[in-house]
């Protein structure tokens, strides 16, 4: 695996999430945020085997991210890494990283505000989210989620 700029900050990110349970990571495009971070955090002890949800605002990007992450593990989508987008999903019983779009996340938060079984929520392409009509609802549901966790 080739080195990417994000690799330098992964230890600090692990530490921040283990100690403060939240972090903001900003890096230029191509630094490895989408492809490295979820895999680097997958086996962290504080995650306790729970799922990582990664929000990708666009369906094509969600599918592509899942395919790339699965490829990095030498697997097919639907094994350790899967995705859920409108009208399509590839997840399995062993899926631990789910790449989802905002509509899927919104529906999941409505059905299960505590996000049971989810240990980490990653917002990829966060700068796009405030322009979404679902942004206020996601934000309000996340406030409830963070209070319950």
TrEMBL record:
Gene3D superfamilies: P-loop containing nucleotide triphosphate hydrolases (3.40.50.300)
Coiled coil regions in record: none
Annotated keywords: ATP-binding, Helicase, Hydrolase, Nucleotide-binding
Domain Helicase ATP-binding: 14-149
GO terms of molecular function: ATP binding; helicase activity; hydrolase activity; nucleic acid binding
Protein name (Swiss-Prot/TrEMBL): DEAD/DEAH box helicase
Organism: Pseudomonas reactans
Taxonomic placement: Bacteria, Pseudomonadati, Pseudomonadota, Gammaproteobacteria, Pseudomonadales
